[in-house]
Amino acid sequence: MRRIAILTVAIAGTLACVVLAVREVELASDATLTWSPPQWWHDLLSAPPFVLALVGTAFAVAGIVCLWLAVGMLGTGQPDDGGGVELGAGGASVVVTAGALEHLLAGALAAELEGVTDVRVRVTRRDERLVTRTFLSVAATDLAWLQARVGAIVERELRAATGIVPGEVTLEVDRLLVGQGR
């Protein structure tokens, strides 16, 4: 989503620069056209020609750089937040998506934790570490025990699936269901 926003801003900025350049060329080519610009614009237009060229070049370069960066981000093929994991190296690598890891962890947690009614897991990557954020609706219980149990299950499942130990495991309890403790 972030890449689409950056690409949209870059294209809009580039188009605005092109429209302004075309407008200036049209005004310069036809003396009968009139346009009452604001004072700062008048000061800029009455500046020496090298200043106008410098400002125009700076805006054009900025627009091209924004567009180049946005297109480069779209072409990387990397997940937006680095949520996938590449296992192996070279031609024998396997990419495990964040969605697949999230599904695996949610299933394991739901199967092994008593009193859990809703499990959602979010897996992201920070540098070379996997970070998991688990959202649960659970019966009222000892939350320190629950956090330790979630951490152990997540570590075991990620190690088995990817060989990577998670760098951070966060547990968020959305709802505590009263009267259904363990």
Keywords:
2 domains; 21% strand; 182 residues; Alpha-Beta Plaits; alpha+beta; single chain; two-stranded antiparallel ribbon; three-stranded mixed β-sheet
Walk me through the structure.
Helix content is 53%, strand content 21%. It folds into two domains: 2-74, no CATH class; 85-177, Cation efflux protein, cytoplasmic domain (Alpha-Beta Plaits), CATH 3.30.70.1350. It is built from five helices and five strands. It has helices at residues 2-29, 39-45, 49-74, 98-112, 143-162; strands at 85-87, 94-96, 116-126, 129-139, 168-177. The protein is an alpha+beta fold and 182 residues long. Helix 5 (143-162) links the parallel strand 4 and strand 5 (168-177). A three-stranded mixed sheet has the order 3-4-5. A two-stranded antiparallel sheet has the order 1-2.
* Count of the separate structural domains: 2
Counting DSSP H or I runs of 4 or more residues, the number of helices is 5
Query: What is the share of helical residues?
Result: 40-55%
| Assigned CATH architecture of the largest domain | 2-Layer Sandwich
What would CATH call the class of the largest domain?
Alpha Beta
Radius of gyration: 28 Å
Distance, first to last CA: 41 Å
Task: Label the structural class.
Answer: alpha+beta
Mean pLDDT: 77
- Placed side by side, the strands forming the largest sheet appear as 3-4-5
